[in-house]
Write a structure and sequence with these properties.
The chain is α+β, with helices and mostly antiparallel strands. It is built from 5 helices and 4 strands.
Amino acid sequence: MVPMVASRINHSCVENAAYSFNVGSGMFEVFAARNIALGEEIVLSYADKFMPRATRRESLRKYNFVCTCALCDWTTNYGKVAETRRQRMLKYRVSTICAEGQVGRGQKPTDTTPSGISLAKACEELIKLMNEDDEGPVGMARQYVA
């Protein structure tokens, strides 16, 4: 069951809030992912924003709308540049997640991920790209909260 308040938060692929499910309370907890200006709408991403635009849009079809947020708007320079950057993030994100299960089983950060990139290099590149895209460490942390 989705709490009434959480179900009323609109979508943007460039969210300013994130959520997690608290098993103990049985409730979704919504928290700011960055400073939110007075009067600014609080928005969550209903889609995996690291996926290509077409994939995000397809996943949003069940909500009966087409996203027109800054990331999905390819008429702007931000939309074009951000899409390319996020596709690169996905490559490194997949590399780090795949390697994650290997670390602690005799693997070292200098070992390579399934895509042939060292875990340390993949993490470094992902953080660099997230910082360029205003995702920074908070964005990185959000990937592991849910």
